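In response to reviewer comment 3 from the previous cycle, which asked for concrete evidence that the modeling workflow produces usable outputs, we include below a single protein chain processed end to end. The sequence was submitted unchanged, and the resulting structure tokens are shown without manual editing.
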Amino acid sequence: MLNVKQDKPLSHEMLRIVTATHHDPFEVLGRHPLVASATAAADTLVRVYLPGARTATLLINEQHHALKRIEGTDFFEWFGLAKMLPQHYLVQWYDRHNVMHTEFDPYTFAPQLGDIDMHLFAEGQHWNIYQHLGAHPRTVDGIEGVLFATWAPNAERISIVGDFNDWDGRHHPMRVRGGSGLWEVFIPGVKAGALYKFEIRNRATGAVFLKTDPYGQAFELRPLTGSIVKAPSDYEWQDGDWLNKRAHWDWQSSPLSVYEMHLGSWRRGWVGEFMNYRELAHQVVDYIKPLGFTHIEIMPVSEHPLDDSWGYQTTGYYAPTSRFGTPDDFRYFVDYLHLHNIGIILDWVPAHFPKDAHALARFDGSALYEHEDPRLGEHRDWGTLIYNYGRNEVRNFLLANALFWLKEYHLDGLRVDAVASMLHLDYSREPGEWIPNIHGGNENLEAMTFLQKLNEVCHGQHPGALVIAEESTAWPQVTRPTWVGGLGFSMKWNMGWM
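The workflow returned the following structure tokens.
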């Protein structure tokens, strides 16, 4: 309960809202019971923070109740009886341009991330975490909106900014869930199609920066980098027969011929424009089918910043690139090839990621997804960063991503890029430029464990799906089962064909 007579601590907490440094805005904003006598005229306080607001009222049973501005601030308060307030109330306010806004108060909603979800994520074993982190339209207590959630344990404050709040980080600060490093807020009224980013303030330095969503499932067309809220797909798959056949496929004794292609350069439109996934589907089938190929392997289609690349520097792991259309357009691409008995293998890049400031690099102002020490965390040849496979949440991000492509897009396999660089701590490094493992060797033990787990979960959950290693050295037992000490891959890419 709040005690309105104790102004000093309350003022300190409110100042943290004003300076955008509060880790739990629910302590200050929303509805709060008051310490008061039984005969008091008010037993409840409602407080909202509305930067730029001229006036504000509560709408209760279609009646306006004035919210009183705290002089010299953008805080507005109402004191009244709890029995007057619905569980979730509307706030109506006018901004400096005299535009009216009517919205439910986000700071009346209970936490949405479940304890089991947070526990599994902390253990690195939540295979559907992409259904919880990111941005997900949902209905809470009968009210439609979007749940935003991300992992950033070294943030002091995170806000959601987007085209629904003028990209102003003062409007929708998130709350951290204990010591999990997970942040969340449910914002009523936001709909699929909204643009958003995370505005993050680092705890140690106070630096403030914008980041796209690591779990974002759609992004703006480059060079723009905003994440897009996506509703669950209603695409109606037609490839059930193919998937059933694949689950019982004995690939080791069946013909297998793979055509490798890069969608961006394989074929263009009449004036050099990128083709849509749906157009590509028909042209790929017409070209591939007469040649007798059983599968295609597509170079990375996950979102990436540069057109003049093959897509190996991924910035959006959970989104097909918008260059070629929408996520459902890519579903059609896969579906159409399956209907013509052509399988699809995705080139997948868990070995490294780019340094682009808007994406994963130093996501919360610290080396979060990567290693702090460049001897472990940087590929100097490629100018990219190396994942920290020893961190549970990072492994979970990657493992769930592999399953995401197999489950949500019905892909038939993954060709895992740059496996050799993952396995060798001294890969392309001179003496003194790398750090030995705990046994003094050059094997990346954490990457080995990651790859074994990758193969176990992919093969266990998607029978018949292939996981192929692009491994350019003589590492032993790449395709041997994990229970005998192997890495567990289905097969190894034949580098001699390059």
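The longest strand covers residues 143-151. We consider this sufficient to address the reviewer's concern, and the full set will be provided in the supplementary archive.
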